[in-house]
Design a protein that fits this description.
By secondary structure, the protein is of the alpha/beta class. The chain contains 7 helices and 6 strands. It has helices at about 30-35, 45-65, 80-90, 95-110, 110-115, 125-140, 150-155, and strands spanning about 10, 15-20, 25-30, 70-75, 95, 140-145. A 6-stranded mixed beta sheet has the order 3-2-1-4-6-5. It starts with 7 loop residues before the first strand and ends with a helix.
Length: about 160
Amino acid sequence: MVNPDTAIKFSLGLEQLSFDIDGQHFQVDKGLSFIQSNSMRHGVLDELAIELMIYVIEEILESVPIQYGQPKSAISADTLLQEVLNLFFPNLYRIDRVQLESGFNAFIDRREYYVHQVAEQGVFSLVYFVFLREMMHHWNVTDIKFESLETAQLL
C-alpha cells in the first residue's frame, strides 16, 4: 500500500500545471495548450504528434524536482480527469498502472475513434490522458484517483 503522505495532488490546466507533494507546491506555466501546440502539427493527432507529445511531457515532468523512487498515488478533481475516466474507464474513479496502460494501448490502436469521440470539446482530454500515462511512468505513480470537488470539500 502506498503511503497517503506521498500522494500527489495535481491539476492539469490549459495554461498551467500544478502539483502538491510532501508539503511542497510546484507550478509549471506550460499547460495542456503548450503541450498540444508543441506536438500537434496542423491540429492533427497522429502517431508523430503522440510521440512529440510524450517528449514534451517528459521534459515538463523532469523539470519538477520530486523523488522518483518511492511509489506514489495521485489525486485530482480536474474535470478533464473525469472526462478521461468516462471515455476510457467507465464507472471507475481510480485507475492503476495496468488499467491505464491497457486504456492507452486501446487509444493508440483506435486513435481515430477516440479523436472523433472528443471532437466537440477538442483533444485536451486526450492530451491529458497522455500526460497521466507519462506521469505514472516517470514519477512512479501506482494509481490515480478522481476526487470530486464536493468530496474534497467534505474531507
